[in-house]
Amino acid sequence: MTRAQQTISIGLLVTSLYLALYLQLVPLPSLISEEIIPVLPFWALVSFGAYLLFKLGYGVFTFNDVPKAHAELMKEIDLARADLRTKGVDVD
After folding, report:
1. Which residues, including other chains, have CB under 8 Å from residue 20's CB and lie 6 or more apart?
2. Fewer CB near the last or first residue (10 Å), C or N of the chain?
């Protein structure tokens, strides 16, 4: 099973479970079915956004400096400038 098929399968499972709860096919106390179930998608979306924001912040916080890659990139830029100058392009 590919990753896309797995994701679609999980999404359909979660959606069908939510619809069964929302349409009250599964008997639950009225407090849960009237006040909690309708806001579950919004809660899930906010929680997922908070998780992604944390993951992004942690990635930025733990980002390592790579001086060798910077030096290599600067050499490639200088080579590209020299190549363009030989072709008559002003790059400065």
Report:
1. 26
2. C
Going through 1-92 in order, the beta strands assigned E by DSSP cover none
For residue 52, pLDDT beyond 80: yes
Tokens found for residue 6: 């797995």
Q: How far apart are CA 53 and CA 59, in angstroms?
A: 10
pTM of the predicted model as reported, rounded to 2 decimal places = 0.61
Coil, helix or strand at residue 1: coil
> Cα–Cα distance between 76 and 92 in angstroms, integer?
15
In whole angstroms, what is the distance from residue 68 CA to residue 66 CA? 6
